[in-house]
Amino acid sequence: MILAVLVALIPSLDATTHHEIVSDVRWNDTDGNSVEAHGGCVLRSPLDGIWYLYGETRKGVSNRKTPPTVDYLTQGINCYSSASLAGPWRFEGTILRQQHVVVPGLRGPWIMQRPKVLFNPRTRQFVLWFHLDQPKQHYQSHRSSAVRSAYPMKSVGRATADRAAGPFTFAGSLLPDNHSSLDMSLFADPDEPARAYLLRDVDHKFIAISRLSDDFLHTTGVISKLCEPNPRRAGRRRNRDKCEAPAMFKLHGLHYVITSGQSGWASNPLTLWRSSGAALEGARWTRLGNPAPTLSYTQPAYVVQHASPHGPHAAPHLMYMGDNWVHCQPPGDASLNAITHACYQWLPITLERGPQAGAMPVRIDARRSWD
């Protein structure tokens, strides 16, 4: 059974796709410009029933150096809208720009990555979280002569709005629960939308999960961790054993998280994790393996979860949102700046049945297009 969002909700993403979502290609908005919404999420507003796509602006470069130098001054967060998940997408604007971010004692340019937006049914506001940082700083490794780089802030930024398309007002930065925060995501419980959580990569050591405060603007303490180092394994963990880019969904009362390994822009297998019980508080996590063995060049951004029209006991419709960062250049373009052509992988999540369902309950198959 394919847990794709209903065909009725997915007309054409682009005028040329004929009611299909097409992956691994660049998309155009209704003005004919490239859709730039990387590392983002999709939200269906309960106020107007419209789908809103949020994501990073184009990862531009300022020159042709090797490696290319990112033009951080152009980074921001974009918003698009559509009556359907398949588009066409209308550009609503850049909802958060460099000049909107103010951090006492620090100056930009700012890194603004992996934005996620939730609707808070208590406050009736849209709440945006994102990885907020300054450009990476270089340092000498104390273990070798190698020069390494790292983000200095490792924090999150937040903003709020009364409308899904903004305007958004910056609400400050913080270290969630006094832990560093790199790749991050949000999750609202589909059974209790006023209950929401933050997931984030804590300094490449583990993925931490914290419940959000009632206003969705703060965390209330780490309640669970996954992808922790195994104390029985000697030596340093390999990058493929570390996790980043978490994306959570809920299925049959249990929580699942999809993560990627850490290999820079290079592709690596996805990993699916399953909680030990219905509650996230104190949950233990089982590593199930790769749910997408046929999928290449992908990093998780989000999982769109939509209730089935067949009632609360039916399985939800799920869609995987991923980024293909460096394999979407136009034919014949061998430039160093592949990331400027980053594109998307939106795919239905399939519910497994039969003997294999216990070991791997879902599957994400590589598809050029689907409806």
TrEMBL record:
Keyword Signal: yes
UniProt keywords, alphabetically: Signal
InterPro entries: Glyco_hydro_beta-prop_sf
Signal peptide range in chain numbering: 1-15
PANTHER family with a match to the protein in the record: GLYCOSYL HYDROLASE 43 FAMILY MEMBER, GLYCOSYL HYDROLASE FAMILY PROTEIN 43
Protein name per Swiss-Prot or TrEMBL: Glycosyl hydrolase family 43
Organism (species): Emiliania huxleyi (Coccolithophore)
Taxonomic classification: Eukaryota, Haptista, Haptophyta, Prymnesiophyceae, Isochrysidales
